[in-house]
Structure formats: structure tokens, C-alpha cells
Specification:
Blueprint (H helix, E strand, L loop, with lengths): L15 E2 L6 H11 L26 H15 L2 E3 L3 H9 L50 E7 L20 E4 L16 E3 L8 E2 L3 E3 L3
Parallel strand pairs: 3-6
Antiparallel strand pairs: 1-7, 2-7, 3-4, 4-5
């Protein structure tokens, strides 16, 4: 993972990552069932109807963790945020491509600043942007929270960066509708305070098989 002088091999256990970011519609089920506070852009606890299949935004890292806990309890399976290594593998495949679809940027395959849309799009709006594993919307639309602390490479899953109780900023990946090409590469790392929210930040989940 990484690029340039930061590139290094990382070996990951098997995992299943969500095909799409979590949508407003899915997050609504969580808000309704748990009385968790709704995102700031919603009105009276409900998302705008036309944005049902758009990725939820204005959610903090803590909100994303709360959603994962609720989904795990509801389904009986374990759901969590992806580590940044898991996210990057889903986006880049085994050949280290800088974009999920290949080695050249293509503004028709993602919702980035080049599209000048000024907001999110439905999570299935860019089928040509799929990664080698069929994962969608990894570049553009929304930055995605990862479980990992934003600390220096090399990535090592057992060095404390995956401690959910550790203090520090958390990694965001993928770029958004607000970012231009330079900010939307699959190796690009951003970070934010875990209690912060933004109109261009959401998340997707990873699932594990419970005991």
C-alpha cells in the first residue's frame, strides 16, 4: 500500500467490504431504531426523500462506529469500519492501480470536482468506476472513515493504530465530490478528528462471520 517511497507490502486476512457506502436510507433505519442523533442536513430526523440512495454525510467517526455496533447487534454478524489497508486493497486490487478502474484518471467514472455537480450522487451512479472486486464509489462522492489512526507508514495492524479506544485523528480515504483528481487517488490519505463531521464525509462497512 502507499505510493512512491511510502509503498510497502501488507498482508491481510480475508474480509468482505460493502459494495457501496452506507446510504441515507440505510442510516435512517439506524437513527429510527436507536434514537441516535440524525445528521445535521436532515430535517426532523429524516433525510430529504430525493437523497435516499446517496451516501449519508455529516457523520463523525463515532457515529460510524455506533452504526456498526447497531448493525452487528441487529443482524448477529460482526460489522466494523475497514482499516485503511483493507480499504486500499479493495480500491487498488493486486496490481497497485491508482484508481479502482485502472491507471488513468477518468472523470466519467466518479463524482469528483471535475464533474462540477456540487453534491453527492447515488452510490450506483458510476458503474464504470468499479474496482477489480466489484466495489463501487471508492473514488469521489464522499471521503470514507476508516478504523485506523492517522500515523506514519509502514502500516502494521498490531502497532496500536487499530485500537478504537486510542486518542488521535482517524484516516479518511477516497476523495469526494468536492475534490479534484489530485485528491482522489486510491493511495491518498486524509485525516480528521473523530468527532468532526463534514458535508463530504461518510463511510462503508466491513463484515465478518460471527462465532
Amino acid at each position: 500500500m502507499g505510493e512512491g517511497d511510502d509503498a510497502h507490502p501488507v498482508y491481510l486476512a480475508a474480509y468482505t467490504i460493502g459494495k457501496y457506502p452506507i446510504t441515507n436510507q440505510l442510516y435512517q433505519s439506524f437513527v429510527t431504531a436507536s434514537n441516535h442523533p440524525a445528521p445535521a442536513d436532515w430535517r426532523e430526523g429524516h433525510y430529504p426523500e430525493v437523497l435516499g440512495n446517496h451516501p449519508v454525510v455529516n457523520v463523525s467517526w463515532y457515529d460510524a462506529l455506533a452504526y456498526c455496533r447497531w448493525l452487528s447487534q441487529t443482524t448477529g454478524q460482526i460489522y466494523r469500519l475497514p482499516s485503511e489497508a483493507e480499504w486500499e486493497k479493495a480500491a487498488r486490487g493486486t496490481d497497485g492501480r491508482p484508481y479502482p478502474w485502472g491507471f488513468e484518471f477518468d472523470k466519467t467514472r466518479c463524482n469528483t470536482g471535475e464533474a462540477s455537480l456540487g453534491w453527492t450522487t447515488p452510490v450506483d451512479a458510476y458503474p464504470g468506476g468499479a474496482s477489480p472486486y466489484g466495489v463501487m464509489d471508492l473514488i469521489g462522492n464522499v471521503w470514507e472513515w476508516c478504523s485506523s489512526l492517522f500515523v506514519d507508514y509502514p502500516y502494521a495492524p498490531n502497532d496500536g493504530r487499530e485500537d478504537l479506544n486510542a486518542e488521535g485523528w482517524r484516516v479518511l480515504r477516497g476523495g469526494s465530490w468536492f475534490d479534484m483528481e489530485w485528491g482522489a487517488r486510491a493511495a491518498r490519505r486524509l485525516s480528521g478528528p473523530p468527532d468532526s463531521v463534514s458535508h463530504n464525509t461518510g463511510f462503508r462497512v466491513v463484515s465478518e462471520t460471527g462465532d
